[in-house]
Amino acid sequence: MTSWAAVKQLIRSDIDRYQYMLELDGVLPRRGPQLVRDLRTLLLCKGAQAGIVFRLGHALIAWTPTTVAGRWGRRVGRIGHWMAGRVIETRTGIQIADRATIGPGLYIGHFGGVIIGVVTMGANCNLSHGVTLGRSGRVGDLARPTLGDRVWVGPGAVLVGGITIGDDAAVGANTVVTKDLPARSTSVGSPPRTFPDRGSFEMIVYRGSEEDPGRHASLLRIAPAGGDRGLPEQRRRFEPEPTEVGPVVSGRPA
Ligand SMILES: CC(C)(COP(=O)(O)OP(=O)(O)OC[C@H]1O[C@@H](n2cnc3c(N)ncnc32)[C@H](O)[C@@H]1OP(=O)(O)O)[C@@H](O)C(=O)NCCC(=O)NCCS
User: Compositionally biased, Basic and acidic residues: which spans (predicted)?
Assistant: First the structure.
C-alpha cells in the first residue's frame, strides 16, 4: 500500500518541477506564501493537474482497506476519481493510466494529445505534447515501455512495445521508437538515428539537478571527449579532483 505521506511527496515533487520552470521563466516569483504559489502553478500548468489526478488514482488502486468502512471509502473514492479523471482528460488533453508506475517529478509541458499507458517511468522525466507511450498495437501483445530516469520525450513521439529507454536519453520530435534506446543517447527521426553521449542533460532541469548524485554519475559515464556541445565541460565539473601524491620512496608514496 502507498502511504498518504508517500503520495503527498510524489505530488509535491511533481508540482515543484513546474514551479521551478515557472521561476526560471520569470513567471512565478521565487518567494511568497507556498499555498498561493501552488495554486498559481496548478492554474498555469495542465500537466500538474493531470499529474495530481494520476497520483491519487494510483494510490487508490494500490490501497487495500481492511475494514468495511475502508472498502466503502475506496469504492466511493474510485467513482469520484473516475469522474474527476474524465473532466481532467477533457481539460488537459492528458490521459495517464492509473496503473502506470511513474517516479517523482513527472513534467508534461503542454496541453494535449498525451497518452500514457501502463508504462514504467523513472524520476524527473519530461513528456511533450502529442506523446504516446503504450502497447505495440498487436492483438495480445501487452508489453509496454520502460523509461529510465530523466528521459526527455519530444512532441509527437511514439514509444511502443516492451522497449527500454535508458537513463538520460532524449527522443526527438515525431520519432517512432519500437526498439531499446541506450542511456545518455539522443534519437531522432523514424527509424531513429541515435547519437550516443548527448542525451537529455541540456533539456531536463529540476530543483537540485546540479547537485543530484544520480545525474552526476550518469554524466561521468559519457565519453570525456565524445559528447559534443558543452557536455564535456559539464562532465568535467563533476570529475573528482586528482589526488596529490608525494614523491615515491621504495614503491610507496612518501
Ligand atoms: C531531440 C532534439 C532536441 C535533438 O536536438 P540536437 O541534439 O540539437 O540535434 P541537432 O539539431 O544537432 O540535429 C542532429 C541531426 O538530427 C536531425 N534532427 C534533429 N531533430 C530531428 C527530428 N526531430 N527528426 C528528424 N531529424 C532530426 C537534424 O536535422 C540533424 O541532421 P544532420 O546530422 O543530417 O544535419 C531535437 O531533435 C528535437 O526534437 N527538438 C524538439 C524541440 C521542441 O519540441 N521544442 C518545443 C517544445 S514546446
Answer: 230-240
Classified as helix, coil or strand, 22 is: helix
Q: Is the peptide bond before 191 cis (omega within 30 degrees of 0)?
A: yes
130 pocket-lining for ligand 1 (C-beta < 6 Å):
no
pLDDT interval class at 140 (50, 70, 90): confident
Phi/psi zone of residue 62: left (φ > 0), alpha (ψ -120 to 50 degrees), beta?
alpha
Is the pLDDT reported for residue 241 higher than 90? no
Is the confidence at residue 176, as pLDDT, over 70? Answer: yes
Q: Which of 152, 158, 188, 198 maximizes ligand 1 atoms within 8 Å of its Cβ, making it the mutation to test the pocket? A: 188
What does each C-alpha distance from 35 to 12, 23, 39, 73, 108 come to in angstroms? 12, 15, 6, 27, 21
**Distance from first CA to last CA of the chain, Å, rounded?**
57
**Residue position matching grid coordinates 498561493:** 36
Amino acid identity at 174 = N
Any idea where the domains of the chain sit in the sequence?
1-93
* C-alpha cell read off for 117: 499507458
d(CA 81, CA 175): 33
**Which amino acid does the sequence have at 7?**
V
User: Is 186 near ligand 1, meaning CB less than 6 Å away?
Assistant: yes
Give 39: exposed, middle or buried? Use CB within 10 Å, 0-12, 13-18, 19+. Answer: exposed
